[in-house]
From TrEMBL:
Signal peptide limits: none
GO annotations of cellular component type: fungal-type vacuole; vacuolar membrane
Keywords of this entry: Lysosome, Membrane, Repeat, Symport, Transmembrane, Transmembrane helix, Transport
Sequence similarity: Belongs to the cystinosin family.
UniProt cross-references to SMART domains, sorted A to Z: CTNS
Membrane topology listed for this record: Multi-pass membrane protein
Organism annotation: Lepidopterella palustris CBS 459.81
NCBIfam families from the UniProt entry: 2A43
UniProt name for this protein: Lysosomal cystine transporter
TM helices/strands, residue ranges: 12-30, 51-69, 129-150, 162-184, 196-220, 240-259
GO molecular function, one term: symporter activity
UniProt keyword annotation of Chloroplast present: no
Amino acid sequence: MSESEAILFARAISRVLGWIYFLCWSLSFYPQPVLNWRRRSTQGLAIDFPTSNVLGFVAYAISTGVFLYSPAIRSQYAYRHPASPEPTVRFNDFLFAAHGAILCIITYSQFWTQIWGFKVSARQKASRAILGVFWGSVCGVIAVILTVRIKGNDGGYDPSGWAWIDVVYAISYIKLIVTVVKYMPQVYVNYKRKSTVGWSIGQILLDFVGGILSIAQLFIDCSLQADWSGLTGNPVKLGLGNVSIIFDIIFMTQHYILYRASSKTVEDEVAFQEQQGLLAQPVD
């Protein structure tokens, strides 16, 4: 196989991995809302998870869309990464983010009994920690925008200083921050209940496969460009895959080893949890 053929083959593999990870990650959004629908209840699911997910995926959709379709941002990226001037963001990244944002909004809406009529525990309220992350992230982006407006050269279009690409990076970092913190309340809820009933393991298995393939695609793309700065140029995709894999392993350990399903039915489990007052306790 010649060098040109090897490059074409590697690019084809990258595209295949990208769409497979897109499929896995996209499908991972469905088991939880479907489980809620089947049980007509959101009990067992920490509301912090969909709350932070809405913020994270809306931010991710915005940042990937801008990197793909904004000539100004792409030119600023090329200026800062001359060795590999093309962003490693792909269309499947944007499609995944936009699709994820829609599904996260749907899952979050299931906590509104006026819309779905599902059973929601009185304890299922967003914690102060997650609300702090939510509004702190919004304020952080506003602060970067003001910095670009005040200190940026040429209205923020000169990439040698503060520029609009820094705002896009700030928005994209929201997704990374959310990914780090969004799983923690659910890990805690599972730990307190000593059960994963109400938390779909199907989404975790799909998420795990998607995370591995996402990182694999990123490494192939950087290898094709012969410049590993593409990793630092797309830190969210790298961090998103790694953090997801770590928490997926924790959830799989909880589900398959620590808190294996008992002989109790889902209804008996939920009733017991309500009596003990352990469902969806806010994390301070």
